[in-house]
Design goal:
The complex is a heterodimer of chains A (584) and B (164). By secondary structure, chain A is an alpha/beta fold. Chain A is 26% helix and 21% strand. Chain A has 14 helices and 24 strands. The radius of gyration of chain A is 31 Å and the shape is elongated. With 164 residues, chain B is of the alpha/beta class. Chain B is globular, with a radius of gyration of 15 Å. Classes of the chains: A alpha/beta (584), B alpha/beta (164). At the A-B interface, helix 4, helix 5, strand 22 and helix 14 of A face strand 1, helix 1, helix 2, strand 3 and helix 4 of B.
């Protein structure tokens, strides 16, 4: 390594020179900080000031620079010297701006400034310029897991941006739930009528795109590696397997509908005339194929009256913790019921359609879709359904009218549609202890089958949805280079899933590009440093491997940590965890 | 042991040990603030930009995440004669704001055990305090500092000065 030559620069600009004695700070940098070169400057971030530092780096072979000026968060472009170690003493925001400009405060303000100079000098001598990660992968293909509207969007967007895609779908055809819809909720003006899903065009576009390689009837049997060098083993139903090398992953594994059989009060399964929303779409698709209106399933009779039960098994807080059913709102189902009511009204305005809701939620411009339904004669009743009683061909829906505050009912209903919610297909909950062997519940099947020390799938946050940094980085998961999109991340409709998949794809592309350069993903975007472990003294306590929030550290056969630098976010949680006491 | 080339037990340890600690009778306590660079440190900077004043007894060291705080820094600081240590990280729990998701939660878990260390050192448990700070806490952060400075004033100067 090159000779160490230290230099300290003390700025007098922004009022620093008037408030504190910079000559004294310079003397401290020399005597206590032992800086070999110390300069004061009137205006350090000016072109001339920056040039002074550059000249010293070039001509004086300065390798370590301490700048006492503004916060390290300010003037980052001016004070960017990538070839040298750099520390910043925060004299502006941290001292003169946070202390009163009074004669009484002068002494303590100066003490603060002096200490920050001492600290900056001490720090910079311990810093080395990051050499960069040597173990980088160069693969930039994007693996998309799931071929519904989210996965199709992700694949097409990645291809359009110029990246190759591997798309894996567990069913025998692409399209997911969207392909099972008769029509979709409109996503553009005038938001008046149900719209074509467009899914067949999208599937055709995927099949016509040379950059996209599609596996149908296929699941991920194993995922190993790190951003830039993931390896996915794909198991195909026929029994064959394929291995694909990819740089980043978009998990668009979607949702399952909440099981309406659990809603015994609504008599699902006791009459074919009680269906969930997916059941109604099936009836609508079949009717459209026959070219006639939807018929009553029990006897094929004409449908004269339809009731839609909103929040069926959703927003349930019947017990203190989470309720018996889903505690959350799935967000898409109000619009879906409005759309389905229109299937009937558009075919025959004489059909009675009643939507029984507690709160009608039509996000964005779909408010106009709701108004259109009112114009078409759909009745909206604010109420909470307590029971559905099946009859031979007609059901009775009992509910509490929340406007009149009284129990009432609808009789002679030909078709009852239950708006059940979305349950994310998140795979295995890695935070739960392995299930007991006699557990009767159906065990969830892993989506990614990661070989990571910390478990097969992505960590979950609430209600089984995969964890994502809702506030700052919505697409992020706790596995670097793996991004979730669509209802596996949070409940959402088609329009939101398309936007979500587009965003997640862009993040996946960034991750693969950053990985090749050895750079961190955000929040420390571009950081070239990575954890360096000295195994002498390691007690194999496993704290770093257990506590890494990003599953970046595996263990070898002897329980020593094995770092996967490209998975690392550079937070240093492993450093905080390490109990090995170094000489200090 | 684990380190980064530009961030390690040494880079932070050297900073906190470089601070000049006035003696027990100076009435000038020293409070180390380990502030998360994602939210707490920007909030402190913004407090300065808005000229919100706070105690001159604090010395702030930015950290990558509260999860990266090694307890050795705390014991080093106390052994060096600091009168208190404030740790400022992001909110944790179900509606977490930690940029590294679990860092601040782990820090809070680890610091839950620091009381024993303090007792072994015959120090008051108030000498180490952890706070959840959001980037928007621009007015709150100076208040937290001043309130903590009052706590230190009340419990008095650390008896550990002058030994390191």
């Amino acid at each position: 390594m090159a000779e160490v030559k230290t230099a300290a620069y003390i700025c007098k600009g922004c009022g620093i020179g008037e408030r504190v004695n910079t000559a004294q700070m310079a003397a401290i940098a020399t005597k206590e900080g032992k800086m070999s070169l110390v300069r004061e400057h009137e205006f350090l971030c000016s072109a001339a000031g920056v040039q002074t530092i550059r000249d010293d780096i070039e001509k004086e072979a300065v390798s370590h620079v301490m700048i006492a000026a503004c916060s390290r968060r300010a003037k980052t472009e001016a004070f960017q010297f990538p070839t040298v170690a750099l520390s910043r003493a925060n004299i502006r925001e941290g001292v003169i701006w946070s202390q009163p400009d009074t004669p009484e405060a002068k002494e303590t303000t100066q003490e603060m400034a002096d200490d920050y100079v001492r600290m900056g000098c001490a720090e910079v001598k311990k810093i080395q310029v990051p050499a960069g990660n040597a173990v980088v992968g160069h693969n930039k293909r994007i693996l998309v897991v799931g071929g519904g509207i989210s996965g199709i969007t992700a694949a097409l967007e990645a291809a359009k941006t110029g990246y190759d895609v591997v798309l894996v779908e567990k069913e025998k055809q692409l399209g997911g739930w969207t392909a099972m819809l008769h029509k979709r909720v409109p996503d553009r003006e005038p938001f008046r009528d149900p719209a074509d899903t467009g899914i067949h065009g999208l599937i055709a576009a995927v099949n016509a795109e040379p950059r996209i390689k599609v596996y149908l009837n296929a699941v991920i049997a194993e995922t190993s590696g790190a951003p830039g060098r993931f390896s996915a083993r794909i198991a195909i139903e026929s029994g064959s397997t394929a291995t694909e090398e990819v740089g980043a992953i978009v998990q668009a594994s979607g949702f399952s509908l909440y099981d309406a059989n659990k809603l015994t009060e609504f008599s699902y399964g006791k009459s074919p005339n009680i269906v969930d929303q997916a059941g109604l779409e099936k009836l609508a698709q079949e009717a459209a194929a026959r070219g006639e209106p939807i018929r009553r399933p029990s006897d094929g009779g004409a449908v004269k009256s339809v009731a839609f039960v909103q929040c069926a098994g959703q927003r349930d807080h019947t017990n203190a913790t989470a309720g018996r059913h889903l505690p959350y709102c799935s967000g898409f189902c109000c619009n879906t019921s409005i759309k389905q009511a229109m299937y009937f009204k558009d075919a025959n305005p004489a059909v009675d359609t009643v939507v029984i809701y507690t709160d009608l939620r039509t996000p964005g411009n779909t408010e106009d879709f709701y108004r259109s339904a009112q114009d078409k004669g759909v009745i909206f009743t604010k109420g909470k359904v307590s029971a559905v009683e099946p009859g031979a061909n007609a059901c009775t829906v009992r509910f509490k009218d929340l406007i009149l505050d009284e129990e009432t009912s609808l009789a002679d209903v030909d078709l009852v549609v239950l708006a059940t919610g979305q349950v994310p297909n998140s795979g295995v909950n890695i935070d739960l202890p392995p299930a007991a062997p006699d557990a009767t519940e159906v065990k969830p099947i892993s989506i990614l089958n990661l070989t990571y020390r910390q478990g097969k799938d992505l960590p979950q946050l609430k209600y089984g949805f995969t964890d994502s940094h809702f506030i700052c980085f919505p697409y992020e998961t706790r596995r670097t280079g793996i991004y979730t999109a669509g209802p596996v991340r949070r409940p959402m409709d088609i329009a939101q899933a398309i936007e979500d998949a587009t965003g997640a794809t862009l993040k996946a592309i960034q991750a693969a590009e950053n990985a090749e350069l050895g750079r961190s993903a955000h929040p420390r975007s571009g950081d070239l440093s990575f954890p360096i472990v000295r195994l002498e003294g390691c007690t194999q306590c496993k704290r770093c491997t257990v506590e890494c929030p990003f599953g970046a550290i595996d263990e070898d056969a002897k329980s020593y940590p094995v770092f996967n630098e490209s998975r690392c976010r550079r937070c240093g949680t492993c450093m905080g965890a390490c109990p090995v006491r170094v000489i200090s | 042991m684990i380190s980064f080339e530009n961030y390690s037990v040494d880079t932070v340890g050297a900073q906190l040990k470089a601070v000049d600690i006035p003696d027990e009778f100076s009435e000038k306590p020293r409070i180390l603030v380990l502030a998360c660079e994602n939210d707490a440190y920007p909030a402190l900077d913004m407090a300065g930009m808005q000229r919100r004043h706070y105690s001159a007894f604090v010395r702030v060291v930015p950290v990558r995440c509260l999860g990266s705080v090694n307890t050795i820094w705390i014991t080093d600081a106390l052994n060096s004669g600091y009168d208190g240590v404030m740790m400022m990280g992001c909110k944790h729990g179900d509606d977490y704001q930690c940029h590294f998701v679990k860092g601040s939660e782990l820090a809070s878990y680890r610091m839950g055990k620091i009381d024993d260390t303090l007792k072994q050192m015959a120090l008051e448990t108030e000498r180490v305090a952890t706070y959840e700070v959001a980037i928007s806490d621009i007015a709150r952060v100076p208040q937290l500092i001043d309130d903590y400075a009052k706590v230190i004033e009340k419990i008095g100067m650390s008896p550990m000065k002058g030994f390191a």
